[in-house]
């Protein structure tokens, strides 16, 4: 039975769990999680899906398997302490739906006057907009963005970018048929050394590899053309992330959660079936487009800062980098 890839997140940390299987029971999962988040199994509140909802075992005994609970490889699990006090006899137990994040948010609107309730609902709607989480422009913005979405909310994950570069290199090394010289645009050994160098950018090849690595569709929203390029769409993944691209820089799109909208509570993985998430991603791109927040790669003029050669467009810059090894460019 192949292992599942589950992204586990809790306050103060995250981890990609690869030791669970479809036949793992909920009780066994809780045992695996306690070693990660130090939350006692009896006090774990596990949220999954979108919007996040508490994982509830219909058998009541924790014997249901992850497959029976609908958990698939590539999903994100959020673990919180339940801190649940026993309900009194006069108070009915809340249902799982009431305990879900959306139910908790809306319950805070009860008892408000009509106009205030409407304003509260509008605030909830605004909170569901996606935001652009800007990652460092350090030539690893693609890897930083994917690391942010899939692993860790740290905005300067140097080690994470290096790990993802290594994963790409290993995939190319292991599959000489798919990743031949014609596909890579250079000899395989040269490409492997090239992508491991933090001075070099990532792009389509790297995204296609990493979407398989994480078993997650990766959609790139272009702020100039408003086009969405879907990597891994044909592989049938159940979840996806949204990268936003302005021609030279990648960032990640996220849905902030909680009153503080702290990045460590961001939702960055969305079901492929959630068309609303796609529309919200396009809304961010449209706003950036209206503000002219993109670079026209076909016509922009730059200069190589190593040898001062003037260049026009992405093709000239790439050709110059390949022939000289120079990768430091500046706009004219």
UniProtKB/TrEMBL annotation:
GO terms for cellular component: cytosol; nucleus. Its main location: cytoplasm. It comes from the Eukaryota. One of its GO terms (molecular function) is cysteine-type deubiquitinase activity. It is found in: Cytoplasm. Residues 130-256 form the OTU domain. It holds the Pfam family OTU1_UBXL. Its EC number is 3.4.19.12. GO terms for biological process: endoplasmic reticulum unfolded protein response; ERAD pathway; protein deubiquitination. The keyword Hydrolase applies. Residues 82-109 are annotated as: Disordered. It catalyses: Thiol-dependent hydrolysis of ester, thioester, amide, peptide and isopeptide bonds formed by the C-terminal Gly of ubiquitin (a 76-residue protein attached to proteins as an intracellular targeting signal). Coiled coil: none annotated. Keywords: Cytoplasm, Hydrolase, Metal-binding, Protease, Thiol protease, Ubl conjugation pathway, Zinc, Zinc-finger. This is Ubiquitin thioesterase OTU. It comes from Capsaspora owczarzaki (strain ATCC 30864).
């Amino acid at each position: 039975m192949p292992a599942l890839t589950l992204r586990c997140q809790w306050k103060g940390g995250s981890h990609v769990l690869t030791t669970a299987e479809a036949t793992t029971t909920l009780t066994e999962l809780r045992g695996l999680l306690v070693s990660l988040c130090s939350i006692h199994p009896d006090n774990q509140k596990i949220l999954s899906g979108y919007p996040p909802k508490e994982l509830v075992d219909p058998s009541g005994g924790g014997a249901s398997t992850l497959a029976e609970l609908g958990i698939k490889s590539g999903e994100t699990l959020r673990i919180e302490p339940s801190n649940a006090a026993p309900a009194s006899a006069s108070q009915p137990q809340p249902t799982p739906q009431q305990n879900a994040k959306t139910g908790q948010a809306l319950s805070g609107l009860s008892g408000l006057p009509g106009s205030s309730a409407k304003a509260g609902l509008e605030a909830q709607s605004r909170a569901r907009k996606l935001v652009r989480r800007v990652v460092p422009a350090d030539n690893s913005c693609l890897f930083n963005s994917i690391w942010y979405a899939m692993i860790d909310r740290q905005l300067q994950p140097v080690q994470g970018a290096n790990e993802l570069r290594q994963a790409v290199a290993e995939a190319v090394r292991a599959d000489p048929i798919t990743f031949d010289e014609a596909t890579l645009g250079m000899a395989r050994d040269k490409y492997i050394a090239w992508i491991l160098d933090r001075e070099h950018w990532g792009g389509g090849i790297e995204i296609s590899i990493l979407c398989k690595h994480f078993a997650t569709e990766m959609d790139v929203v272009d702020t100039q053309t408003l086009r969405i390029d879907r990597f891994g769409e044909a592989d049938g993944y159940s979840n996806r992330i949204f990268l936003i691209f302005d021609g030279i820089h990648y960032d990640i799109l996220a849905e902030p959660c909680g009153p503080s909208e702290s990045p460590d509570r961001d939702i960055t993985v969305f079901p492929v079936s959630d068309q609303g998430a796609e529309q919200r991603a396009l809304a961010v791109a449209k706003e950036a487009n209206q503000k002219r927040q993109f670079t026209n790669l076909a016509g922009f003029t730059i200069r190589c800062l190593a040898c001062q050669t003037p260049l026009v467009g992405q093709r000239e810059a790439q050709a110059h980098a390949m022939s000289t090894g120079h990768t430091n460019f500046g706009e004219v």
